[in-house]
Amino acid sequence: MVTEDMLNDFLPLALYFNDSEPDPASWSFSTNLNYEQTFLSFYSKQEKFKDRYVRRFAPSQREDALIQVEDFFENELKNNYKELVKFSDQLSKYLEKGNKITIGLQGFLILDPTSYKNTALVERRMSSLKNHFSTHLGGKLLTYMNQGLLNFKVLNSIVIAPLKTNEIYSPEASKLRKVEIKIFFDE
Q1: Taking a C-beta distance cutoff of 8 angstroms, is the pair 164, 61 a contact?
Q2: What is the pTM of this model?
Q3: Close Cβ partners of 1 (under 8 Å, ≥ 6 residues apart)
Q4: Which terminus of the chain, N or C, has fewer Cβ atoms within 10 Å?
Q5: Cα angle 92-152-90, degrees, rounded to a multiple of 5
Q6: Separation of alpha carbons 59 and 79, rounded Å
Q7: Are residues 5 and 172 in contact, defined by beta-carbon separation less than 8 angstroms?
Q8: Phi then psi for 117, rounded to 5 degrees?
Q9: Of 110, 135, 103, 105, which Cα lies nearest the Cα of 33?
Q10: Residue 66 C-alpha from the chain's centroid
């Protein structure tokens, strides 16, 4: 039996996105992509990130820079995706018992939070997570969404000051492009 405490053990869960993803050319507030698709696309760019990031460093510092990029891709991006899958599996078991839950999605904005393009980007990121839940386990969670047992709440975005170097390939910048999942148990 899955308990509220077991679900809370996963949270807050930060899910990361590549720069301007998903759908970088779009001004839309939604996407047809699910988070797995955005994750796989981002994860496949690990070598590109290593190559571009280490260029900023003297040869003696490049090994440490490579390790930082690998650490982000393996221990944060990939591990958090795996945690999302485990959380979603446990969530399904929790909802099977007729429990009701609200998932809070909190985006993080860099630069100008009043910019329409930035607002649309954060909304697309949250949309990809909603799409994850509606397609996970062959759409099993969609049934709970349609029954009103699984709901979503968009939380106020957190505005983050831009980095001094605005280097999109740095692990520091990559850690800022995220949406966090939180949960609220409904009576």
Answers
A1: no
A2: 0.93
A3: 93, 97
A4: C
A5: 20
A6: 29
A7: no
A8: -65, -40
A9: 135
A10: 23
